[in-house]
Amino acid sequence: CQAVVRGSWCGSGVLCRSWCGSGVLHWSSCHAMVLQGPIVQFKLSDIGEGIMEVTVKEWYVKEGDKVSQFDSICEVQSDKASVTITSRYDGVIRKLYYDVDATALVGKPLVDIETESGSEVIQEEDVVETPAMAREEHTHQEIKGHKTQATPAVRRLAMENNIKLSEVVGTGKDGRILKEDILNFLAKQTGAILPPTPFQEVQTPGPALAPAAAAPRPVSTVAATKPPLTTPTPVFTSKDVTEPLKGFHKAMVKTMTAALKIPHFGYCDEVDLSRLVALRAELRPMAEGRGVKLSYMPFFIKAASLGLLHFPILNASVDEGCQNITYKASHNVGLAMDTSQGLLVPNVKNVQLLSVFDIACELNRLQALGAAGQLGTTELTGGTFTLSNIGSIGGTYAKPVILPPEVAIGALGKIQVLPRFDAAGHVFPAHIMKVSWSADHRIIDGATMCRFSNLWREYLENPATMVLDLK
């Protein structure tokens, strides 16, 4: 047949059936002719928090790879969190616009995707140009540690009913959240949504709290709890190396520059933790029986929250012109962490509603995410008060720097066994920890900071008194 052969070609090189204009059926060899669909520029959506640029840390695809909706495309890092960008289309990657470690701009093309012929192409502009959109509304972004997959309709249903997708268990493919999951979640709701805790039932410790005269822990036991010292590998170079500040390092520059504008007031004190050491030794086996590591930090955080109830000005924020002060209802206590990505400050949300055990569970989760480099925007934003545990490395005193827009921060030193005198003048070994506070002296005076510190110290030196105020 001399007519031009028309028909579909599979692109696999096998014999295919086709027909010509004369109506004669032919079998011929397929020569990799592929019907192309429309090519769509997949733009980097707004990821909130006023972020306008990110650093591309890793590509999960290359040109020519086939992707489906919700498949991971790349990992980007802003000055606040690491975010995995996922595809909103089914198709083939045709172009990558950035190399690894390059800076990508919000609203600009990230990749070109050749969509499948006949598939519905969704306009991106409804996502890109919405800076006020909450993180839960982003259809194709995954904050590490809180993966949520849902269609725009499902996300809108969740938003209208004030439901966080991170609290809904998805029953669809690969954990995708369906409309039925949202409706079932609504049906089970009986009140306000509280922060989820690994254990809903908190048992009351059976043994009584340690008396004031309880023997302190041996020095060898305290020393055994210290993390092993790690010696960094020496680096020798033959020439100077200059590289731009990116990611969390760039965020530190921005934050500390803003902190420099705050007049810091410093206050230091020491705390006798002998009774708390005995109490923790009694409670630690019970916590480990529930699969949770119990450190001193949950007690420090809870005592701070109890103190903030009496001094709410320390759990506040001021605007840029220092004309208005906002008293925060939630006690979102941040904990400075030394991670492989640098200094990060995740926070425990709503400490005023949590028990010491609940705080320990959340700290275990945050530390695991920090060690894996998977702390996301949810964990790293919204803090109202911060504690920095320099003692975990070995420091005794520090001058902590306030993290705007917060107005106070504390630095905790290492616990040392030191000689002290009792009321009768006898020397005894005591577990002493130094604490250093910094406060925004524009709105917080020295007397307020001192009274808060005294109350916080009282809770820790006599942990039984915390029982009266626990909720």
TrEMBL record:
Keyword Transferase: yes
PROSITE patterns: BIOTINYL_LIPOYL, LIPOYL, PSBD
This protein's GO CC annotations: cytosol; mitochondrial matrix
Top EC class of this enzyme: transferase
Primary localisation category: mitochondrion
Cofactor: (R)-lipoate
Entry annotated with the keyword rRNA processing: no
Lipoyl-binding domain location: 39-114
InterPro entries on file: 2-oxoA_DH_lipoyl-BS, 2-oxoacid_DH_actylTfrase, 2-oxoacid_DH_E2_comp, Biotin_lipoyl, CAT-like_dom_sf, E3-bd_dom_sf, PSBD, Single_hybrid_motif
GO molecular function: acetyltransferase activity; dihydrolipoamide branched chain acyltransferase activity; lipoic acid binding
Matching CDD domains: lipoyl_domain
Chain ranges of the Peripheral subunit-binding (PSBD) domain: 149-186
This protein's UniProt keywords: Acetylation, Acyltransferase, Lipoyl, Mitochondrion, Phosphoprotein, Transferase, Transit peptide
SUPFAM superfamilies: CoA-dependent acyltransferases (SSF52777), Peripheral subunit-binding domain of 2-oxo acid dehydrogenase complex (SSF47005), Single hybrid motif (SSF51230)
Subcellular location: Mitochondrion matrix
Catalytic activity: N(6)-[(R)-dihydrolipoyl]-L-lysyl-[protein] + 2-methylpropanoyl-CoA = N(6)-[(R)-S(8)-2-methylpropanoyldihydrolipoyl]-L-lysyl-[protein] + CoA
Enzyme Commission numbers on file: 2.3.1.-
Function noted in UniProt: The branched-chain alpha-keto dehydrogenase complex catalyzes the overall conversion of alpha-keto acids to acyl-CoA and CO(2). It contains multiple copies of three enzymatic components: branched-chain alpha-keto acid decarboxylase (E1), lipoamide acyltransferase (E2) and lipoamide dehydrogenase (E3). Within this complex, the catalytic function of this enzyme is to accept, and to transfer to coenzyme A, acyl groups that are generated by the branched-chain alpha-keto acid decarboxylase component.
Family: Belongs to the 2-oxoacid dehydrogenase family.
Protein known as: Dihydrolipoamide acetyltransferase component of pyruvate dehydrogenase complex
